[in-house]
Amino acid sequence: MMIRLFAVTLACWAVVLAEPPGAWAATVISGTVKNKAGQSLSGLALLEKGEIHNNVWDRGTLVDANGRFRIEVPDGGQYGLHVYSSGYIYSPKAVRVESGKALEVSVVLVPEPTRANDPMIKRVGFFPWEERRGKVTFVKLDVADPNDDLGPQVLAFNAAAGRAYALQPPRRVRDLKANFPQGVYQLELDTSGGSVNPREWHFVVADHQCNTTDVLSFPHEPRPPRVIRP
Amino acid sequence: MSAPRVALGVVLALAASVLARVAVVSGGDHTSLAAAGERWWATSPDPANPVACATCHHDPAETRGWAASFPKFKPLPPPHARVMTLLQANAEAVRRHYRLVDPRPVATAITAYLTTHGAGVPLSPGVTVGQPVFPPRLRALGESVARGRRLYASECAACHEAPAIAAAIADFPRMRGQRMESLEDFLDQHAPRRPLAWDSPAMADVVSYLVATRADRAAKETP
Asked: Quick check: A134 and A179 in contact, CB under 8 A?
C-alpha cells in the first residue's frame, strides 16, 4: 500500500515537473501611456486578437490616471494593441507576447492638432428588446463624421468583463478599408444572466485618418472636444 | 456656396499644392528629391487636416530602419493585407491620410527621403530593428520572394542577370532629367511583354526577390 502511494505521489511530481517553465504564469500585456512631455495619460487600451487591423476585438482595460495598464490574455501570440486617450491621436501597435510571459509596452501619444475632423458620438442608448425582455439588450451609438471616412473602429468596452467589441454598422460593409456609414451602430448583448450596467461601458470611435473621439464614459453625455496644446 | 463647389475647391487647392511642391523637385537632383520628401513627411497638404506623417512618426531614430525593412508584409485590413514595397506602402498612407488622388509623386519623394534617412542601415527585408518579429509576416514575404523569383526567371532573366539588377536598384528613387522616377515606375515602363503595374502585388514580388538577392549578397560580403 505504501509503495503504491509512493508511486502515485512520484507520478504526480513527474507530471508537475514536466510542465514547461512559465506554464502556470499569466500571459500579460502591460505598459505605460504618456505624452511627448512625459505626462501620464489615462484612457483605454484595447486588443485585437491576431494580426492588427483585422477588426477581431478581444480584451481591453482602462488606462489609469498614472498611465498604467495591464491586460491578461489567455494565450501567447500576436495582438493589435490600440491605445486611446481623449484629445490624442490613437496609437495602433502590433505586439507579440509569449505564453506565460509579460510584455511591457511604452506608448507615447501625440495631441490632435485640430478636433474639427473628429468623428462624433451624438448619443448612446441601452435598449432591452421588447419581445425578449430581460434576455437581449441593444447598445446603440449614433455616430457622425465630418470627413465621412469612418472605419470599423466604432468600439465599446465593458470594464467589468474586460471585453472590447466593434459595433455593427447601420448597413453591412464588406471591405474594412471602405468608408463606413454614419448613423446608428449597435451591439446585441445576451443579458439573460443579468441586466446591463451602463456605468461599466465606455465608447470610442476613430476614422480612417486616425481622428478620434474622446473616450466616452458614464453618463455618456458627449461634450465638445477640446484641443490639447502640446 | 454649394457643397460640390466647396469640395471641388478643396480638391483644386490640394492639387495646386501638390503641383507646386513637385515643381520644386523637378529642377533638382536626388538630394532635392529627398528634401522635398522630407517636406511632405513633415507637412500635410491639407491645412484643414494638418496631421502629417511626422505628427505620429516623430522620432527619427524610429524611422531610420524603415527603408531597410522593405519589402514587407503590411497589415492592412483584410483582404488588403499583403507584401508591399516602400513606395507602395507610402502611396497607401498618402492616399488615405493626405487624400491625394494620385499619390505616386508624393510617395516617391517620401520614399527618397526615408531611403536617404536610412542610408547605411543593413538590409533586413521584413524585419524592422527594434520591432517584434512576426513569423506569419515573414512567411508571407518568403512566398512573395518565391513568386518574384519565378516571375523574374520567366520575364526578365533572358536579358538581365538578377545580381546585376539587384545591385542597381539601390539607385532608386532617382531624378531622370526633370522627372522623378521610382524603381516601380522604371519596371512599370520597362516590362516589354507583360505589364507590371507599379502598385500591383506582382511588382512587390519582383522587388522582394531583387532585394532578397541584394541582401544575400551584402550578407556574404560582410566580413
From this structure: no
